């Protein structure tokens, strides 16, 4: 019933409501007629004029209205009692005029009628579980109903009727707010859900279900509130872990919440916040690991920590500084390694490797003077080493006086080198020995026919002979044999330091 269509006067409410007994309310005119008839008959009996039984036309409904003896509120009106006449009325009696009802009786009837209407509406309200969704207002109305009952018991008819009418109007108004209260409970429940207040939301949705037990909207809202309550409980557990410093456990709890497919915004924000804390802890841990690794020259571990730091994306300037520091330490370590290697090669007189090592150092840092000087010195030693090795390996060239002179100069230079390692000393000794051999004359035996004159270039001419010996220093010589009437003979011999190989035959025998 909408409030716009609500009856606004007592007569309209009386027409709409009936007493709890279910029977129709007799029209006031019929009740008044019956009472006047009874009064008239009673007067006739008192006067002794008529001694007849009292008959009422038709069936009459009579309601007990006596007040309670103990002063308690009146109970709901009982089903009206039907009094049937014992005998049939005569036509004269039925047509007898009725007496006029006293005004007091009319007021009592009106008050009782109003009470019946209120009680009928109260029964309807109880069926609507009004005390569950409008408890306070309903208790106030019941209190006023009790006051009206007291007025009725005290036979203050007019005040009782007015009180009943007021209660009837207010109770009807309260019943008319049921749909509004239902919608309001739904709205406040949804607002509580939006405000993430699951307990309050549950109360509102339960209130809506009390008003409309079959409401799908309220049931769904209640389910969401229960889900939100469970999420909040898990969320609070995650916050508790966070407060205790158990960030990993907090993150696990939050992942479970968000993994259920619920877009719970506080959990998302908490996960971001805790992840930032975990990242910060990892950042500090990896930075410390990096510096410890640098101190221990464990560059592989330092590089792994640097990669983790770069992946975190935090404090990029600090990470860049750490990367530069790592590179500097790696460079220094590499330079030291190469320097040690160069020194080792130098001790082993592996001068070409020394040159390469110092060259690698200069590639890392071109301004290192020790590497520049070391490479220069190593290059000289490498060149000397190569020259000595070549002179010894190709000693046959020492047969050439120019080569011997160059080798002698090389030997003199090598002897001035300090310090001299075992290899250099060995090379000096070997070359010196070779020079000594190639400076020492070797006896060369020549065979001929005693008719050929032999000339040795740069040595001299030898008269014909059968066999002769001549001392020559090791080297290569050109011999020419000549004889009149015969073709000249030319030959080239190499005199080595080994005397066993120095015997040659030269003669002219081809006639011209």
Strand content: 5-15%
Number of helices: 18
Strand order of the largest sheet: 5-4-7-8
Instruction: Please give the radius of gyration in angstroms.
Output: 69 Å
Total number of strands: 9
Shape: rod-shaped
How many structural domains are formed by the residues?
3
The helix fraction, in percent, is: 55-70%
Structural class: alpha+beta
Largest sheet: 4 strands, antiparallel
Draw up the topology in text.
Layout: H1 10-16, H2 28-47, E1 60-62, E2 81-83, H3 91-94, H4 103-127, H5 130-133, H6 135-153, H7 157-176, H8 178-194, H9 198-211, H10 216-243, H11 247-259, H12 265-295, H13 299-312, H14 316-347, H15 351-364, H16 369-393, H17 401-415, H18 422-439, E3 442-447, E4 453-456, E5 460-462, E6 467-472, E7 475-483, E8 486-495, E9 503-505
Helix pairs in contact: 4-6, 4-7, 6-7, 8-9, 8-10, 9-10, 10-11, 11-12, 12-13, 13-14, 14-15, 15-16, 16-17, 16-18, 17-18
Q: Which tags fit this structure?
A:
rod-shaped; 512 residues; disordered N terminus; alpha+beta; four-stranded antiparallel β-sheet; Immunoglobulin-like; 3 domains; three-stranded mixed β-sheet; 9 strands
Written description of the protein model:
It is a single chain. This protein is of the alpha+beta class and 512 residues long. It folds into three domains: 3-176, no CATH class; 195-307, no CATH class; 440-512, Immunoglobulin-like (Sandwich), CATH 2.60.40. Helices cover 62% and strands 9% of the residues. It has helices spanning 10-16, 28-47, 91-94, 103-127, 130-133, 135-153, 157-176, 178-194, 198-211, 216-243, 247-259, 265-295, 299-312, 316-347, 351-364, 369-393, 401-415, 422-439; strands at residues 60-62, 81-83, 442-447, 453-456, 460-462, 467-472, 475-483, 486-495, 503-505. A four-stranded antiparallel beta sheet has the order 5-4-7-8, with no helix packed on it. A hairpin with a 2-residue loop joins strand 7 (475-483) and strand 8 (486-495). The chain is rod-shaped, with a radius of gyration of 69 Å. The N and C termini lie far apart (162 Å). The model is unreliable at 1-75 and 78-98 (pLDDT under 50).
């Amino acid at each position: 019933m909408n409030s716009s269509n609500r009856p606004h006067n007592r007569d309209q409410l009386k027409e709409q409501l009936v007493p709890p007994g279910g029977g129709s309310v007799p029209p006031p005119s019929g009740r008044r007629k019956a009472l006047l008839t009874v009064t008239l008959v009673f007067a006739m009996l008192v006067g002794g004029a008529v001694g007849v039984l009292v008959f009422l036309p038709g069936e009459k409904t009579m309601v007990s209205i006596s007040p309670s003896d103990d002063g308690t509120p009146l109970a709901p009106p009982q089903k009206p009692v039907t009094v049937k006449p014992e005998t049939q009325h005569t036509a004269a009696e039925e047509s007898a005029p009725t007496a006029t009802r006293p005004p007091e009786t009319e007021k009592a009837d009106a008050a009782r009628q109003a009470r019946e209407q209120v009680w009928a509406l109260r029964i309807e309200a109880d069926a609507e579980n009004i005390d569950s969704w409008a408890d306070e207002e309903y208790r106030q109305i019941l209190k006023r109903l009790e006051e009206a009952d007291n007025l009725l018991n005290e036979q203050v008819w007019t005040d009782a009727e007015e009180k009943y009418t007021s209660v009837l109007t207010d109770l009807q108004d309260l019943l008319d707010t049921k749909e509004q209260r239902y919608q309001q409970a739904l709205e406040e429940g949804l607002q509580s859900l939006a405000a993430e207040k699951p307990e309050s939301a549950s109360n509102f949705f339960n209130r809506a279900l009390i008003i409309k037990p079959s409401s799908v909207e309220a049931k769904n809202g209640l389910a969401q509130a229960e889900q939100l309550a469970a999420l909040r409980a898990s969320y609070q557990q995650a916050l508790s872990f966070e407060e205790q410093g158990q960030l990993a456990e907090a993150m696990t709890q939050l992942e479970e919440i968000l993994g259920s497919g619920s877009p719970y915004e506080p959990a998302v924000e908490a996960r971001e916040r805790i992840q930032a804390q975990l990242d910060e802890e990892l950042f500090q841990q990896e930075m410390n690991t990096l510096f410890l690794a640098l101190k221990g020259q464990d560059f592989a571990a330092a590089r792994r920590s640097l990669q983790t730091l770069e992946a975190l994306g935090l404090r990029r300037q600090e990470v860049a500084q750490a990367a530069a520091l790592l590179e500097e330490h790696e460079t220094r370590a590499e330079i030291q390694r190469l320097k040690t290697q160069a020194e080792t090669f130098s001790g082993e007189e592996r001068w070409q490797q020394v040159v390469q090592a110092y060259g690698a150092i200069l590639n890392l840092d071109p301004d290192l003077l020790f590497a520049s000087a070391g490479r220069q010195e190593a290059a000289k030693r490498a060149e000397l080493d190569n020259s000595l090795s070549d002179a010894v390996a190709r000693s046959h060239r020492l047969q050439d006086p120019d080569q011997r002179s160059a080798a002698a100069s090389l030997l003199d230079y090598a002897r001035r080198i300090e310090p001299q390692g075992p290899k250099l000393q060995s090379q000096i000794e070997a070359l010196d020995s070779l020079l000594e051999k190639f400076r020492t004359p070797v006896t060369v035996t020549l065979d001929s026919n005693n008719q050929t004159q032999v000339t040795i270039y740069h040595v001299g001419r030898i008269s014909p002979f059968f066999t002769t010996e001549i001392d020559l220093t090791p080297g290569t010589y050109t011999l020419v044999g000549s004889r009149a009437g015969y073709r000249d003979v030319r030959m080239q011999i190499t005199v080595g330091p080994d005397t066993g190989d120095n015997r040659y035959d030269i003669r002219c025998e081809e006639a011209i």
